[in-house]
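Backbone Fold Data
Goal — C-alpha cells
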Amino acid sequence: MGPRVRVAVVDDHQVFADALAERLAAEPDLEVQGTAASGAQAVALLDEQEVDVVTLDLVLGVEDGLDVARELAQRNPGLGMVVVTGADADVRCLEAVRIGVRGWVSKLEGTATLVDAVRGVARGETHLPPGLLSDVLTGLTVLADGAGSADEAVVARLSQRELDVLRCLVDGRSRREIGEILGVSPNTVRTHVQSILGKFGVHSALTAVAIARRAGVVRS
C-alpha cells in the first residue's frame, strides 16, 4: 500500500464531522488530519497540516461553503475538494466545479460513496453523480461558447503527450486507464493533467474537457 491519503473534514455540525472523521479514519489508506467548523478554522488547519483532500459542507453556519472552497483552492493549489451536501443543492454543482471542486456527494448517500469519492479525487479524478456529470459538462461547454478560436490557441500549446492525455480525458478515461493506454504511471498522468490545467488556466479536468470539445479535439 502506498502513502495514505491525508483528509480534513470541514462541517459546522460537530457530531456529523466527528462521525465522518471516524468513518474515514477506519480506512487503512486514509488518514484524517483534523476537523474544522468554519472557513477560518479550515484555513488554519490546512496551514498547519499537510492535506490531500478536504470534505466540505456546502453550508457552514452563515458561511457559503463554496466561498470557503474558493479560498482553500487559492491558498492550496492542487488540493482535492469533495462537497458533501443536501439533496436540494445540485444546482450549484457547476459553480463548484468551476472553482475546482472535483467531488460531489449527497449526505443521503452511504458513507461508502464518500470514501470512493475521496479516493478518486486523491488520484486526480472527478467524482460526480452520473445525473449531474452530463449537466455540468453541458454547462461548461455553454460557458465556453464563442471562445472556439481562443480554445484552439490554448490547445495548440500542449505537447503531444499532453494532447494524448487530453483526448483520453475527453473519452471519459480514468487516470489509471490513461496510464495503461499510454504506458505510463498514474503519477505521470497526474503530472500531465496538472500541466494541462495550468496551460488552460482552469482548476478542473471537466473544464479542460469542455475547452477541448470547443476546440474540436473531439466532436461533442
User: Anything to note?
Assistant: The chain has a mean pLDDT of 85.
